[in-house]
Fold this sequence. Notes:
Elements: E1 2-3, E2 6-7, E3 12-14, H1 23-32, E4 37-39, E5 43-44, H2 45-50, H3 53-58, E6 68-73, H4 80-89, E7 94-99, H5 104-107, H6 119-137, E8 143-148, H7 158-168, E9 173-176, H8 190-199, E10 205-208, H9 214-224, E11 228-231, H10 233-237, H11 241-251, H12 260-277, H13 282-295, H14 302-310, H15 314-323, H16 337-344
Parallel strand pairs: 3-4, 3-11, 4-6, 5-6, 6-7, 7-8, 8-9, 9-10, 10-11
Antiparallel strand pairs: 1-2
Amino acid sequence: MHLGPVHLETPLLLAPIAGYCDLPFRILCRELGGVGIAYTDLLNSRALLAGVQKSLNLAQTNGMDQPVGMQLYGNSEDPLPEAALWAIDHGARVIDINMGCPVDKVAKKNGGSLLLRDCPSTLRLVDRIIAAVDRHSHGRVPVTAKIRLGWDEGSIVGPSLARDLEKAGIAAVTVHGRTTVQRFSGQANWEAIGEVVAAVDSIPVIGNGDVTEAVHVGELMKVSGCQGVMIGRGALRTPWIFEQARILLETGEVGPEPSFNQKCSMILRHIDLLDRYAELPFGIRSMQQRISRYGKTMGHVKPLKEVVRTAEDFETMRREVRRWMMPHRDQVSSISRGEYELQKAI
């Protein structure tokens, strides 16, 4: 799959998940396999150019995190073209324009999905961004867009906007199968994503929404005809979902679930990446919050989750995770209640 001149090894994309898609997590997902491209958390164009440390941290990348897309948000009054050039100079291989975020802090600033309410103005902004990026990168960096179906059911603009974005030079469109008003409620409309696919001539349309298991990747592609799938919240609990889906696309069968010990090793690797790349206390707090999601795939591990959730340092977390690793747990993916009672006695 290609996003303009950028080749992706797989058609599987890690979404710019607000509050979660930091450098350690992006590297973790890549190392587990199957990721074609990963995106940063959405970036405020003004804060980025002002050098606000939080935004700089969100945009952090390195050689282990390629190809990476940086997603920018703002409106026609914001310095989005200039922020795109900053992103290219700091490692972005793809510039993505956020036109789909329904969160108030983004939409209330006339960015995100509010861009769906004034498509002519949005297209003029897109023209400016593409022109600046093409000049600066000599055509090497594509500009893409992430949209929703529309603001509400009475203003569905996804198909027509995608068609106009393609004419403007957008290299790919990602569509979340809900309206802004829906936020994350209800069910993503995969058939409506198919209407966007039908509306464009040749650029890839990437489907997004309610992909929480690897099998959903194949189902979404079949229903909508989309060429790629962006996975967001589903990756937070199972970051190995990309590799499972890659195997599915190649063989027709979902890849194997990691063993319990492999999941523990994955958590240890995530801790190491947070220790190396995340500032304190953010790194500690991040794992404290994420362990409950990981634990949902591991069976009866309440004591493990509690120790990690309350730990004040990485070494305490590492020690507890290692304590749960036993040779016979290479053969199981989760802990049964009987195993749990045995663990309590140790």
